[in-house]
Design brief:
The complex is a heterodimer.
Chain A lengths: L13 H24 L2 H18 L9 H19 L4 H21 L2 H15 L2 H12 L4 H8 L3 H25 L1
Chain B lengths: L1 H5 L1 H7 L9 H51 L7 H20 L9 H9 L17 E4 L2 E10 L4 E8 L19 E6 L7 E10 L2 E14 L3
Antiparallel strand pairs in B: 1-2, 2-6, 3-4, 4-5, 5-6
Classes of the chains: A mainly alpha, B alpha+beta.
Amino acid sequence: MDETLFGFEHIDDKQLLLEHLIDQFGERVKKLAFTYVKDWAIAEDVAQEVFISVYKNLDRFRGDASYKTWIYKITMNKSKDAIKTRFLRPTKLLGKLKLQNEAYEQSAEENVFEEIGDIRLSEAVMKLPVKYREVIMLYYYENLKLEEIKSVTKLNLSTIKTRLRRAKAMLRDLYEEGVNHG
Amino acid sequence: MDERLLHLKESMDRTVLKNGEFRPDEKQKILQTIRIQNLKRKRRRRRWGAGFAVAVSLCLLFGVGWFIFAQLQDQPKFSASKSSLKMDVLDANKNKKALDNSADTVHPFDKNDIERFKTMPKRDNGPDVQAAPHYTYVVLNNFYYKETGEMVSKDKLGQEIGRIKRAGDLPSDQPRNSNGIPPGAIYAIHGEDPAIYVAAKGSIARNGKMETGYLIFKRFEPVKR
């Protein structure tokens, strides 16, 4: 099933189409935004801005890319704007991440080893610099193909592969660091 | 690491992205925002539309007004104002009363006046000018040239051989050159004797409408003085 087009190509009403897109991609957009802004309230605002932008530009959407890659591109841009313009500063980001960590560490004590591994991996991903985190998220979390990542990020394939390689190396170190500290 | 990364989605959804569900109220908030924006856009368009319509109407009104004004400016000066018309009417009434009181006024339906009219001396055009002919004419070399009812084309005209200086058909004590042709040139006609046929520009009624062109005149009788 082509989730990018299924059921959408016959929808003429703009508002109806938007509702379908929200149903299909709302959660993904919010989560992807969170990986940038690391705050659920801001991620919610970003998601709202993304879909309002989608609605405004639906007429201009030519269909040469899929809805998925188009919406992800808007999400990334809006998220990066939010980081630049809002009150989120690096120290605050770290602070928020710590809070998140504490919450998971508490539950991690109660949970099995697998969940600890999940936490460590998630934390490691969230600690990556943005440019490495986004390719990891798009490739492993969103399961986009390299060509799709190229369309979303406007990076060339070699750059994407390089960043993926470096991101995995950094993740290995961060994960081991987590293991050593945890 | 690669193995772990293959399950990254599950790992993150269970942990850092656990609270990331998209709630129905979030969806409604987006749709509501869009509805409000659409409403604002429609109101803006309506305002612009109304403003545009008013502007166009004003322009049309101004244009029509200007046109009418221009037309009024072009009309002849003798279109008198109301007040001067009134004056004319008043003057005319005064004159009428004066005329009515005058002994010389002729009332067509008054028998006495008709008798008086019959005995009144005839208007004298002066010893040197005879009463004008009753046909349309031009005068050239002391001859009346009578209108033939025919016309000649411009390319058949010869040289100018005379001029109509005074024209008109009202009684006058001065000799006239024509009683139906406006002042202008009298021409010879190619192939015709100018002592017999001449042409002058004027208008005649033909086939129920007035035609303007070069009318042919034929010598008719001498001007008696």
